[in-house]
Amino acid sequence: MTLEDQTQLEQSKQLRRDFVSNVSHELKTPLTSILGFLESIQTVARNDEEAKSRFLQIMTDEAKRMSRLVNDLLSLNRVENEESITPTDEVDLISIINETIENTEPVYSKSNNFLTFSHPNQPIVVKGSRDQLQQVVTNLLENAVKYGGPNKEVKIELTGPAHFAVLGRVGVTLDVIDQGKGIAREHIPRLTERFYRVDSHRSREVGGTGLGLSIVKHIINRHDGRLRIKSVEGEGSTFSVFLPLD
Ligand code: ADP
């Protein structure tokens, strides 16, 4: 007689089932709404120009939501596939962050957020993927704006090189600090799970897919780094990315 522990296999099957059911649900909600409004346009609202243009706007927003979700799913798939391939390019973090700040300008200036970026005087060169590190900064910065609220300061601080216990070697830290409502302690360990949201309604309202931090976590893993989230309710949150230097 042989005994085989299949716990891990069962867990990964369950994870896959949950994922498929989550994705289906996330896509089904906007799709149902689009189909409903299409029907209204073809029937009850056929001759109501004002209602038709309102419905078309809602349908556009819902279609954009589906498109964001599909884009994030594709990104997640790509970063998961590449996770075990260590990056070899040498990239300067300061220029990556500056470029991301420039690209994100329309997002934070629309909500009147005030952004500061402090960094060491010399270039900070790490082994990494430029596109992926830019994605990390974009996702954290967009979250700080989305959940930090309008008219608030968002700080980006790059510090190091120094020895960080969390890395067990010399590295740098990138902190993205907001002045939002903060996150209750019990949610923090789960934020990087796919589709985990503290407040689903709020996330949808600000155009979230629930995948941003999951993508961030996989990219940081690929770079042999660490993510630490600290938050004080009512004061704000700090998302810290630790990256090793060779
Ligand atoms: P989403 O697309 O919903 O923003 P994320 O994976 O980026 O998905 O984030 C997951 C959840 O973590 C968000 O829905 C939100 O509840 C919470 N969160 C992320 N960043 C912040 C932040 N800076 N302040 C407060 N809550 C945050």
Mind explaining what this structure looks like?
By secondary structure, the protein is an alpha+beta fold. The protein has 2 domains: 7-82, Helix Hairpins; 90-244, Histidine kinase-like ATPase, C-terminal domain (Heat Shock Protein 90, 2-Layer Sandwich). The chain has 6 helices and 7 strands; from the N terminus they run ααβαββαββααββ. A 5-stranded mixed sheet has the order 2-4-5-7-6. Strands 1-3 form a two-stranded antiparallel sheet. α1 (7-42) packs antiparallel against α2, α2 packs parallel to α6 (212-222) and α4 (130-148) runs antiparallel to α6 (212-222). The longest helix is centred in the first third of the chain and has 36 residues, at 7-42. The chain is globular and about 70 Å long. 25% of the residues are buried. The mean pLDDT is 94. The chain binds adenosine-5'-diphosphate. The site of adenosine-5'-diphosphate (ADP) has 21 residues, from α4 and α6.
Q: What can be said about this structure in brief?
A:
The chain has 6 helices and 7 strands, in the order ααβαββαββααββ. The protein has helices at residues 7-42, 49-82, 93-110, 130-148, 200-205, 212-222; strands spanning 90-92, 114-118, 125-127, 153-164, 169-177, 226-232, 236-244. Helix 1 (7-42) runs antiparallel to helix 2 (49-82) and helix 3 packs parallel to helix 4.
Q: Write down the secondary-structure element order.
A: HHEHEEHEEHHEE
- What order do the strands of the largest sheet run in, or round the barrel if closed? 2-4-5-7-6
CATH homologous superfamily of the largest domain? Answer: Histidine kinase-like ATPase, C-terminal domain
Oligomer: single chain
Which hetero ligands occur in this complex? adenosine-5'-diphosphate
Fraction of residues in β-strands: 15-25%
- Integer-rounded radius of gyration: 21 Å
Number of domains: 2
